[in-house]
Amino acid sequence: RFLARRREIIAHYDAAFADLPAVTLVQADTEFRRRSAHHLYILDVDFAALGRTRQQFIRELNAFGIAPQIHYIPIHYQPYHQARHAYGPDAFPAAVRYYEGCLSIPLFPDMTDEEVDHVVATVR
After folding, report:
1. CA-CA distances (angstroms) from residue 26 to 13, 41, 42?
2. Residue pLDDT, tens place only, 9-22
3. Using CB atoms within 10 A of its CB, is residue 28 exposed (0-12), middle (13-18) or buried (19+)?
4. What is the domain count for the chain?
5. What pTM does this model have?
6. CA distances (Å), origin 98, targets 9, 112, 121
7. Which end of the chain is more exposed for a tag (fewer CB within 10 A), N or C?
8. Could you count the other beta carbons within 10 Å of the beta carbon of residue 105?
């Protein structure tokens, strides 16, 4: 039931966001997705194309009762690694690019269809 409901929500999100030009769906290959527990649903957003920063977008979602999250901060940005390694801010450009665009939206099995629709309508 738990995984089945998450898969339902993911299918709904996939269909709802597939046509958004500023959003890329972060999708793993089919086999991985089939076995995944789907604990996150991550959008890769071109915030410049939206004309706002990620923080502005997050505040807008928050105003509508939606709490997105950012997963994950690149390891070379973490204080522990900054103190021990001489990685510059441009050391891992792919990780930084992903970090700058990623945004996790709510995905939990107890979400009602109305809550899922609210997330979709607000993100769109």
Report:
1. 11, 8, 6
2. 999 999 999 999 99
3. exposed
4. 1
5. 0.85
6. 23, 30, 24
7. N
8. 21
**Site of tokens 């441009």:** 90
Residue 71 identity: H
Q: Looking at residue 43, which CATH number applies to its domain? A: 3.90.1150.10
Residue type at 84 in one-letter notation: R
Residue type, 11: A
**Residue 21 lies in domain:** 2-123
Q: 51: left (phi > 0), else alpha (psi -120 to 50), else beta?
A: left
Of 67, 73, 26, the closest CA to residue 45 belongs to: 26
The answer to whether the beta carbons of residues 104 and 69 sit under 8 Å apart is yes
